[in-house]
Amino acid sequence: MIPRYDLHCHSLASDGLLSPEALVLRAAEKGVGVLALTDHDTTAGLGPARAAAPEGLCVLAGVEISARWGDKELHIVGLGLDVAEPGLVAGLASQRQRRVERAEEMSRRLEKLGIVDALAGVRAYGADSLGRGHFVQFLVERGYAKDNAQVFKRYIGKGCTGYVPGQWMSLAEAVALIRGAGGLAVLAHPGRYKFSNGKLRALLGEFAELGGAGVELAYPNQAAGEAERLARACRELGLAASAGSDFHGPMPWTELGRIKPLPADVEPIWQRLALQLP
Ligand code: AMP
Ligand code: MN
Ligand code: MN
Ligand code: MN
């Protein structure tokens, strides 16, 4: 029997709400057989996740790298990584340093709105990789907004006083970093970038050319029919299909292991992952 795969989720090491330990226990309860932990720009949760994984759950080393493509930001998931590979270690450390610098600048800007101590507040959550999700938590806890959507709309989304774009590595660098660590590079949530069909097709072509291995064809809040539309491009370009819950914590729109079936005519990426399983 093919185990149930969930190849995209987050822990407290980045902007997830559960510890790596609680995350793997929940994944096992939900029937997941192979879970890739893909925190933003860090693999710090892997050791604790593996140590706590119950029998029957395989935890795959992953990451979600923020990358720049022209003037756009993309998320590239790496699967089956050697997390001790020096190039990967250095590349992710540099991304996290940029996250700290972004948080410092966001905090300075929020001060102009009378919101003080945001930097100390977001650091206090103790994540290895500091993200905008921590600002969401901080601003909601302090009563400045009621939820994630409101924080992005009022304070930190594009066009807001607290918006600071990330200074990320390029798409080519992200793919090279993942491949250099023996991993498979996957384009995360392709519909989330709001590209035209032509632009998305160009991206997939360039991604395949760079050595990208797959595209997420099942993820939460995906538009109806998108997977079927992208399946053909994937076949033509030799890209496999990945799937993940992008779980950050208990929320109504997603759950660990709750994955829509992939279109029948694509190659599931787990067929290429066998060699990466520990
Ligand atoms: P970061 O990697 O720190 O830039 O944070 C990115 C995270 O913020 C993503 O994982 C999303 O979950 C969340 N996010 C990004 N844009 C929005 C938005 N417009 N509304 C709500 N959440 C968002
Ligand atoms: Mn996130
Ligand atoms: Mn993402
Ligand atoms: Mn994610």
Keywords:
278 residues; 8-stranded mixed sheet; 10 helices; 8 strands; 39% helix; 15% strand; binds adenosine monophosphate; binds manganese (II) ion
Quick structural overview:
The protein has ten helices and eight strands.
Determine the fraction of residues in helical runs and give it as a percent range. Answer: 25-40%
What's the total helix number? 10
The helix/strand class is alpha/beta
Name the helix and strand elements from N-terminus to C-terminus, one letter apiece: EHEHEEHHHHEHEHEHEH
Could you explain how this protein is built, in words?
- This protein is α/β, with parallel strands linked by helices and 278 residues long.
- It has 10 helices and 8 strands.
- Strands 1, 2, 3, 4, 5, 6, 7 and 8 form an 8-stranded mixed sheet that branches.
- The protein is globular, with a radius of gyration of 18 Å.
- It starts with a strand and ends in a 5-residue tail after the last helix.
- 45% of the residues are buried.
- Residues 64, 75, 188-189 line the site of one manganese (II) ion.
